[in-house]
Every structure is written in structure tokens, then in C-alpha cells.
Amino acid sequence: MEEGEWVEIGEVIELAGQCGKCELPVILTSDDINTHTHKTAYVSAPRVLSQLKMVGCHIHFSDDRCLQLFQHGDNQVRAIVDQPGFELEVDPRLPAGHLYQQHRQPHDPPVCEGIHYSTAGEWRPNDILDTDASLSSFAKRVILDHFVGTHQTYATSNHLNRHVGGGRLDSLFTQSPHTPVAGCSTTLSRDGNARELVLTDGSHSFVAWISIFDADDIVHMSVQTTESPVCVSGAFKDGLPMTTQLGSVALGRESDVFDFSVVQRKPSEGEGDDGWGGELKEGGGTVAGEGQDGAQDGDGEQEARRVARRVARSRGMRGRRLSLQEFLRSGSSRESDKGRKPGGKGQ
């Protein structure tokens, strides 16, 4: 095979290995290769999709599921669970000006899906869909999603204006989602306004990453790590020096997020009142993990999704599947949340 043909899937496998989801190296068997009925079936599909069909069953989750793809007919593909709601819409039609359409890669195209690992400890479909920048980005996202739901981490967060600091944050949202980010082993992107920057690789004894989510030019930034802390009180940079060092390379001038307090997060056990974990307070935020200056330690994008789903339920929209971007553009979340920004506090 030509050099570079397995680069994207290689990053997926390396992240899965970091997160303890597969044994490295992955050795394909004849059964893996026979997931394709013939060579024409392999070459007719986007290359990363064909490769993920062979490799996915080697990426195991703790609930007896794996990253398996199920082919139904010529056009329908399901992931992880072979049930309705777990479909992948490969290479969806996107607006001409959409970032993922502008930087679309035919061998690793965008994908639209609604798959998440719930706080109840199981894979579930969402009514609100994500648009992942690529098939490989989707694969990395579900690996990290499951890792977060099953491991204790230490975290900190902050809110920043997207356009301050010399344009570093802004460039992370405007550049091609396939462009490598300095100081990161891999990245993943979804919905045009959310990214995860993975700081560690297989040489580290822990997993660390930065999540950024843009809501109306206010960026919610959070850092999570499984590094063993020097101390669990005070500033993140004092208790988790190795993650701080790695993150400072990736963030540059925006690395003051490490000055904020460290918060210990445990895997969720059961669902909260909103069906997404966490005890709700008035206005829809979570009680646990509110940081300095009102910045929540919970993920800003997750909060936006909580708002969207509560409104969907109240309006009888549970049967309708739509993208988070469509929902937010409609203004429904603002109307229901009395002016609150995702991840922020009420006015």
C-alpha cells in the first residue's frame, strides 16, 4: 500500500491504545479483511470507512461493545450498536461555506450522527445530531467520550473571548480541522465550533486533553487529565505540572487557564433530572463544579446540549432528529434559557 494510506486510522488506534481500548499493535486477521465481500466493495467506499470496518472490532469498550460498523444495504451504516438511531450519515450535504465542506477530504469525509455514551453507562442515540469533521474524528470522539464516562479525571476551565490573545483561539476554529496543532498528538472536531486537542501520546502514563467550545465568540475552555496529582487543592498548574507543561505548548498565550482551581471529576453514576447527569439548579446549570468568576467546570458544549434537549422535550420534538447547529441558529435555546449562553450563567 502507498505510504500514508493508514495515517488517519493510525491516529485512531493510537488514541484507543492510550485510553486502554485496544492492544497495540493491532494485527488484522482474515476475518477482519473479510468484512468486505470483495475488493470492489473496499475501494468503492471512502478509504477511512473501509479501514474502520476492519479495525473497529479491535477497539473495545468496557460494556462488551466495540467500535464495530454494521452495513445495511448499499447506503446505511450503523456504529457500535446495530439498532435504529445509531446510523452514520457519511459525507452529508453541507452548506458551501461550511468549514468542513471547504476542507472536505474524499477519503475521510464528514459524518453526521447522534451517538453518545450516556451517564447511565450505555451507548444511546441522540435526537440532536453532531456533524463530525471526518470519519476518523468521529471514531476518536467516541473513544474519548467513553473514556471520560469511565475514568476519574482532574479538570479546570475558563471562559475567554475568542478574538483576544493574538488570534490563537480564533485560528483553532477557522483553520482546517485536519491541520495538526502544535503540542498535540491528535485532534478532533465537531459542529464547526467544538474541538478536542489531545496532549498526550503512548509514551505518557496518563491521558490529557483540552476541550474548546465557541458560543457567540465566547470560548469555554476546559482541561482534563488522568495525571496523578501532586496535590488536589489550589491552582491546576501546581497540582498537575506535567499536563500544564504539555498544555502550555498547545495554548501559548492562552495558558492562564491553568491558574484556575483544580476539580476532581468522577465517572457519572446514573442520570440527573435532565437525563444528562448532574443535579440541576435554577436556570439549567449543574450544581457541582462551578469555578472562579462564574465559569463552570462542566463542559460548555454539554450544557448547550442539555438546554437544547430540555426544550425539545417540552415542545414534543423528541421524535425529530436535527443538528445542534440548526437548533442554536433557530434561537430556541436562547428563548428557553432567558438569555443564558451555553456554559454560562443567567443574566
TrEMBL record:
Biased composition (Gly residues): 277-292
Region (Disordered): 264-347
Listed Basic residues bias regions: 307-321
Protein name: Uncharacterized protein
